[in-house]
Specification:
Elements lengths: L1 H4 L12 E2 L10 H11 L12 H21 L6 E4 L2 H15 L6 E5 L4 H12 L3 E5 L9 H7 L4 E5 L13 H11 L2 E5 L18 E5 L10 E5 L28 H39 L3 E3 L10 E6 L4 H7 L3 E2 L1 E2 L12 H5 L4 H5 L1 E5 L6 H20 L2 H7 L13
Parallel strand pairs: 1-11, 3-4, 3-5, 5-6, 6-7
Antiparallel strand pairs: 2-8, 7-8, 9-10, 10-13, 12-13
Helix pairs in contact: 2-8, 3-8, 4-5, 8-12
The protein binds pyridoxal-5'-phosphate.
Pyridoxal-5'-phosphate binds next to helix 4.
Length: about 425
């Protein structure tokens, strides 16, 4: 296979391997690193130290970052709680609200393609006597608002629906969901990790009460994130899940990760300034990748809505090829597949299955996650590599031959052996 693969030469200026998995994590922007450096070296103070300049300096940097994060999502600085990342933010939001509003009700509504940080948190709450409704999605990956309306009852305390999906990039109708929750007096949490800085997301305009953010999906460092907690109309209360020194207005104790927070703030500032031009750039790259692949291959299928989608995401299934062979064939391109996604298991992605895809189609899928640092030359190289490998694998596929000959595979009676 490597022989076939090497038929496509990387042009000058394209360095291998190519990183095209920006929904898994993104490279640190050099401007973010530069902002962080002083806080990893000379400015090492504890932001909670009130008695000397080292502490004041750190506190000032954290205050600036709080403003930067708040500004990106239309919040105020006091509404930002720093955490260790979005997994913690999702846990804090859902468990913190469940605990705080237990007297009011025990019902939570979410949907099936949420990140595991949301789904597994909800599952744990079910063990503690909470009731959770997992809304289905339509074939395009978007929830049906009528389903949501029907799911909310007098015991519902929280609706948690992500803004953008990490596998298929599909955007949920956040504003409509927020408005509905607002009307019904139910709190609305959104895992906004993939959306912020890439698609419109504004906590006032979208009626979001609580939102999870992660730095490393927006060119910031790993291990730092934030939770937006609305302070008025309504004032949301969250029960702390980590107790200690009472940092972050008692909602999240622990010495603040000052360099990480500075990095998150800088990443948000850049995202806000460059969002429009960057979205157009990424959409251009993504559409070019799709067009090049579709021009040269038949039986390819885009998973999830193309209309309601992050600009940098393309999730495609290549029918009649095996996902693992495909990934091995393009081993100088870092992408994710619909089968390897949930670690060691060979189960196809639960997100793709929720769209109604069969195991075979889900297994043959690839997620291309384009980012700020990808180039047109890289896109062209990746498209050529994918086309070359898929053609090669299909030459070896009896199924593909049969389909090309016009045989309807659903009508074939397979002989057991
Ligand atoms: C990456 C991701 C998370 C988890 O964020 P971490 O900061 O890595 O813990 C949660 N939700 C979504 C949608 C994500 O993409």
């Amino acid at each position: 296979m490597n022989e076939v693969a090497s038929q496509v030469e990387a042009p000058a200026g394209v360095n291998l391997p190519i990183y095209m998995d920006n929904q898994a994590t993104s490279p640190l922007d050099p401007r973010v690193l530069e902002a962080m450096m002083p806080y990893l070296t000379s400015k090492f103070g504890n932001a909670a130290s009130r008695n000397h300049s080292f502490g004041w300096e750190a506190e000032k940097a954290v205050d600036t970052a709080r403003e930067q994060v708040a500004k990106l999502i239309g919040a105020t600085a006091k509404e930002i709680v720093f955490t260790s990342g979005a997994t913690e933010s999702d846990n804090l939001a859902i468990k913190g609200i469940a605990e705080m509003y237990r007297e009011r009700g025990n019902h939570i509504v979410t949907q099936v393609t949420e990140h595991k940080a949301v789904l597994d948190t909800c599952k744990r709450l079910e063990k503690y006597g909470y009731r959770v409704t997992y809304l289905p999605v339509k074939a395009d990956g978007v929830i049906d608002l009528e389903d949501l309306k029907r799911a909310i009852d007098e015991k519902t305390i929280l609706v948690t629906i992500m803004a953008a999906n990490n596998e298929i990039g599909v955007l949920q109708p956040i504003r409509e969901i927020g408005w509905l929750c607002h009307e019904k007096g139910v709190l609305f949490h959104s895992d906004a990790v993939q959306a912020i800085g890439k698609a419109p997301f504004h906590v006032i305009d979208d009626y979001v009460d609580v939102a999870s953010i992660s730095a490393h999906k927006i060119y910031g460092p790993k291990g730092v994130g934030a939770l937006y907690v609305r302070r008025r109309n309504p004032r949301v209360q969250i029960a702390a899940q980590i107790d200690g020194g009472g940092h972050e207005r008692g909602m999240r104790s622990g010495t603040l990760n000052v360099p990480g927070i500075v990095g998150l703030g800088k990443a948000c500032e850049i995202a806000l300034a460059e969002m429009d031009t960057e979205a157009a750039y990424l959409r251009g790259l993504r559409d070019r990748l799709e067009a090049r692949i579709e021009a040269d291959l038949d039986f390819v299928h885009v998973n999830g809505s193309m209309e309601h989608r992050l600009p940098g995401n393309l999730n495609m299934s290549f029918l009649y090829v095996e996902g693992e062979s495909l990934l091995m064939g393009i081993n100088d391109v870092a992408v994710s597949s619909g089968s390897a996604c949930t670690s060691a298991t060979l189960e196809p992605s639960y997100v793709l299955k929720a769209l109604g895809l069969g195991d075979d189609v889900a297994h043959s899928s690839i997620r291309f996650g384009l980012g700020r640092f990808n180039t047109e030359a890289e896109v062209d190289y990746v498209a050529a590599r994918v086309v070359s490998i898929v053609r090669h694998l299909r030459e070896l596929s009896p199924l593909y031959e049969m389909v090309k000959e016009g045989i309807d595979l659903t009508k074939v009676e397979w002989q057991a052996h």
